[in-house]
Amino acid sequence: MKNFFTGNKIKILLHILVWAILLGIPLYFFQRWDVGNDFIWLYYLGNIFNGIIFYSNYLILVPRFFFRSPKYKYYLSVLILLTCLYFASDQTDKYVFKHVPGRGNVEQILKQRAETKELGPPDHGKDFGRPPFQEMHLFNYIGTALFLIFLSIGMRVLERSSQTEKLQKELEKEKLNSELAFLKNQISPHFFFNTLNNIYSLISINAEDSQKAVLKLSKLMRYLLYDSEHGDTKLSNEIDFMNNYIDLMKLRMNNKISLSIAFPEKYEDVNIPPLIFIPFIENAFKHGISYREKSFIDISMTIKEKSILFRCVNSVLKVRVENEPGHSGIGMENVTKRLNLLFPDRHELQINESDKEFEVLLQINFA
Question: What is the pTM of this model?
Answer without folding.
Answer: 0.52
